Amino acid sequence: MIKKIFKYVLFLVLGFSIILAFNIKCIIRTLIGIPCPGCGMTRAWIEAINLNFYEAFKFHPLFLLAPILIILIIIRGEKCIDKYTKYVDVSIVVIIVLFLGVYAFRMYMYFPNEVPMNINKESVLFKAVNLIKSL
Question: Which residue ranges traverse the bilayer (predicted)?
Fold first, then answer.
């Protein structure tokens, strides 16, 4: 299990390093211009670390569930929790449904003008559409 956790941590560190190196704030927003269900998560954690919990919940109200979801996904296939797999699976589904519900609400209420649910007109998709329109 330690090896598996190490692989996940290494994967996450490498992924975040690439994202930071290329200054990609959100892959989804960079490519298609609309926010993803996790948009605002990084800013929420930064605010929480600075003990600004009101601002943290404004950026993403479910930021505290993200590490729980990651842990559940990591431990899901482990032998030591075989008898709890059903509960882990249900928990994963519930958290994902919560994320999608909050995403739908935030898109309805705040898209396209309010941070972090604002539109990215500099995205690859917007640039491609504008290029095609100009032809």
Answer: 57-75, 87-111
In a domain, 133, yes or no: no
The 10 Å CB-count burial string (b at 16+, else e) for 123-135 is: beeeeeeeeeeee
With both helix axes pointing from N to C terminus, report the angle between 65-75 and 2-21 in degrees, rounded to the nearest 10: 130
117, part of any domain: yes
Structure tokens at 108: 């309805």
Number of domains in the chain: 1
- Evaluate whether 24 touches 17 at the Cβ level (below 8 Å): no
CA distance 31 to 1: 35
> Is 135 part of a structural domain of the chain?
no
Tens of pLDDT, residue by residue over 77-123, are 777 777 888 899 999 999 999 999 999 999 999 998 888 899 899 99
Is 90 within 8 Å of 82 (Cβ atoms)? no
Distance (Å, whole) CA 128 – CA 9: 35
Structural domain of residue 79, as residue ranges? 2-124
